[in-house]
Amino acid sequence: RLAQFTVSYYANQVDALTIAGTKGSIQMDPAFGFGQGLAHRRRIGDTDSHETFKATDQFGGELKYFSDCILDDRSPEPDGEEGLADLL
């Protein structure tokens, strides 16, 4: 298994993800943007397909989840320690 990830707020606008395996591949473009729909192309063997997804408000869902954790006295997942570990 081999994976390569590049994530940057300073790189030119690249909004794509490609995953390739022995039986097929999937490419999303756009893949990460906010406020726009997403699309993917999939190839399994010699069969191609394409699917689009409506724009969603990911941040709104995160805010609702965090608010529910406060109201229900639950610890959010991931917690602050895991978030800090991501930054180090």
Describe the protein in words.
This protein has 88 residues and is an alpha+beta fold. The protein folds into 2 domains: 1-55; 57-88, no CATH class. The protein contains 2 helices and 4 strands, in the order E-E-E-E-H-H. Strands 1-2-3-4 form a 4-stranded antiparallel beta sheet, with no helix packed on it. The model has no long low-confidence stretch (mean pLDDT 85).
Helicity level = 25-40%
Strand content: 25-35%
The overall number of domains is 2
Spatial order of the strands forming the largest sheet: 1-2-3-4
Q: How many helix segments?
A: 2
Helix/strand/pairing category? alpha+beta
Strand tally is 4
Low-confidence stretches: none
Order of helices and strands: EEEEHH
Q: Write down the overall mean pLDDT.
A: 85
Overall spatial form: extended
Radius of gyration: 17 Å
How far apart lie the N and C ends? 25 Å
Q: What about the largest sheet?
A: 4 strands, antiparallel
Please describe the structure with a list of short key phrases separated by commas or semicolons:
88 residues; alpha+beta; 2 domains; four-stranded antiparallel beta sheet; 4 strands; extended
